[in-house]
What we know:
- The chain is α/β, with parallel strands linked by helices.
- It has 21 helices and 33 strands.
- The longest helix has 17 residues, at 128-144.
- It is globular, with a radius of gyration of 25 Å.
- 52% of the residues are buried.
- The model is unreliable at 1-17 (pLDDT under 50).
- Adenosine-5'-monophosphate-propyl ester binds next to helix 12, strand 22, strand 27, strand 28 and strand 30.
Amino acid sequence: MSDVRVKFSLDKEVEEELDVFLPPAPLLAGAHVSGLPSYHDLYRSSINDSDRFWATVAAELYFEQGSTKGLEWNFDVRKGAPFTRFMSGARTNVAYNCLERNIKRGLGDKVAFLFEGNDPRDASKITYNQLLEKVVAFSAVLRTRGVGKGDTVSIYLPMISELAIAMLACARIGAIHSVVFAGFSAESLAARIVDAKAKLLVTSDGVFRGTKPIALKPIVDKAAELAAADGCLLPKVIVVEHLKRVSLPDGGKAPQFGPSCSHERDEEWEAAMESVKGVDSRVEWMDAEDSLFILYTSGSTGKPKGILHTTAGYMTYAYQTTKMTFDVHHETDVYWCTADCGWITGHSYVLYGPLMNGLTSVFFEGLPSYPDASRLWQVTEKYKVTKMYTSPTAVRALMAVGDHYVTKYDRRSLQVIGTVGEPINPSAWRWLHKVVGEGRAAIVDTYWQTETGGHVIAPLPGATPLKPGSATFPCFGVEAVLVDSEGRLIEGPGEGNLCFARAWPGMLRGVWGDTDRFAKTYFSSFPGFYFTGDGAKRDEEGYIWVTGRVDDLMNVSGHLLSTAEIESALAAHEKVAEAAVVAAPHDIKGSFPYAFVTLNQGERLTPSLVAELKQLARTKIGPIAVPDIIQQAPGLPKTRSGKVTRRILRKIAEGFDNGLGDTTTLIDESVITQLIAGRPSNA
Ligand code: PRX
C-alpha cells in the first residue's frame, strides 16, 4: 500500500499532519469501483439520475413483479407527513433473494455460513441448499402455529444457526421479525414483545458467553409474565435446546437451568421441525413497501423505538452496500462480520447483505476475548477470511492486550477490515492497518444507523484514499449535508449537524405504531432534512468526520443508550429523588454512563445502595446500561425553567474543574462546586 503524506487542516486552529492511505494496488485491479474518479462519476449519477441508478442495482436481484417507480419521498414536515417509498408496485421476497436466487445461479452447494461456536471446538457449516431446507421447514412451523403475513415474531436467541433460520423463515412468509439482543433484561424484552404484539417468540435454553453460562429461557418466562400483565399474551414460544450440544469450557459443568419447555405454550425447536416434515411452505411475494422487520433502538425520551424496515428498499440497499463497501466477489471471498444479529449490523451485514451476494461467511457465536484475545485472528487464519467487519471497541480492547495475540496467526488473507458503531480513533485505525492488516488491507470506517438500514458514509476499498478516523464520503444515492443550529446548509469545510437531504432505498419507513414520533425524531429539527442526531466535520477535500451524538443518546461500546431510560431506571429506587446520566469518555468503550443521583432527605449513597442502583439498571435495561460511576449529588444544576444542564454535568464527569461554560443561568451555581468536590476518586 502506498502512503502519501499530505497536509490538510481539519480544524482552523490546529494544523495537523495526517496520512492518507491510497487503495491497495491488488484491490484496485478487480474492484467493482476502481479509483476515485469512478466513485465520483457513479456518485453523481446516483444523485442526478437516482431512479435509473437504483433500477440497475435492483436488476441484479429477483423481482416477481417489477416497477417503473423509483424513490418517492417527503422530508418536509411543513408539506405533510414524511414518507419514503421505493419501487412502488413491485413484488419480491428478501429470503428468496438470499436463497433460491443463489441456488438457481449454481451456488446451492456453496457454504453459506461457517458457524463458529463460543467454544472453538464447536464449528459446523451449512450450504445454501441446506439452509433453504431448514428455512422452508421453520417457515412451515411458523405457519402451522398460526403465524402469517404481517404478524410479528420476537426472536431472543444467541448467535446460533437457528437465529439465521428464524429470521429468514419470517421473511419467507412475510412475518415481521423483531430480534431482541439476547443480553437485554426480561423487562426490556417484555416491553418489546408488548410494543410489537408478538404472536410467537423463538429463544434458546441458554448460551455460554466465554466460560459463563447464561440462562435465557427463564428471562423469556419472566418477560412473558410481564407482557401478560401488560395485556399482551404471548401464545407460543419455540425453544432451541442449545446447551446440550455445546462443548463445555474446560473444567466447566453442564448448567442446570430447569426444563427448557416448562409451559403449555413452549415447544422444542427440533420437535417442531419434525412435526412439519414433508410440509411445503411457499414463498410469500411481498409488496415493495410491505414490512420486513422491526428493530428496537434507544430513543431520547427513554422509550425504545421500533425502527421499521420494508422489503424492496432495504433488500436493494443491504445487497448493494455489502457489495460496494467490502468489494465482495462470491467466487473468492470469505467474509466475516463479528456483530450479533440482535443489532442492525447483524441484520444487514451478517445475514441479508452477505447472503444476497452469495458469499460464504463466518457466523460467530463467541467473544473476541475467548479463549483468549487471539480468537479473531485464529478464526481469520482458520477460514482464510478475506473481508472482516468489527467494532472500534473490540479493536481498542485487543490493541490494549498486545500485538503478539495478533501476530501469532496468519492474516495474509485479509484484504478489507471494516469498523462500525462509533467513531474510530486514529490510533486504533492505525493499529488495525499496520499490525492486523500489515499495511496490505484497506480499512473501511463505516458510518450508519439502525435507521439508515445500511452504510451511508463509507469508503470503497478500491477507490477511496483513506484518512484515519474519517468515514470519508457518502455512499451512492446518499446526500449528506451539514446544517447549522438554524437549519442552514453549511457549504465547504465546517462543522454542524449531520443530515441527509434526500431519501435512499434502505432508510427506515417509520417508528412502529408511532407516526408522530417518526416525524418528530427525524424530521422536525431541520425541516426538509433527515437528522441523524450526530455532529460531524467536513474538511477541504470533502472528507466527513463524525464526531458523535449531539442529542441525549450515548454510545457505549458501539451501542446506543438513552440517558433518559437509565435515569428513569435509577429514579425507580425509593431512595432516589432525581437522577441525571451523562456520557463520560472511556479508553475501550468509547464512553460510559456516569450517573448523578439526588437522594431523598437523610439518605446516603452507601456501597450497598450503589450496588442496588446498578442492579436496577441491569434488570430494567440490561448489563450494558449499568453506570460505571454513580455519584451522589446534593442537587442538579438546573436552569430557571427547571431543565438539567447536562452540558455542565458532562464536563464534570469528564474531570473538568473549570471551563464549564456559562453557569450564570443556573438557579444555584454553588451546586457545581459541590459536585466537583464530591467526584469519586475513581472518576
Ligand atoms: O452516533 C453514530 C454511531 O452510532 C449511531 C447509530 O447507532 P445504531 O443505530 O445502534 O447503529 C450502530 C450500527 C450501525 C450513529 O448515530 N456510529 C455508527 N457508526 C459510526 C458512528 N459514529 C462514528 N463513526 C461511525 N463509523
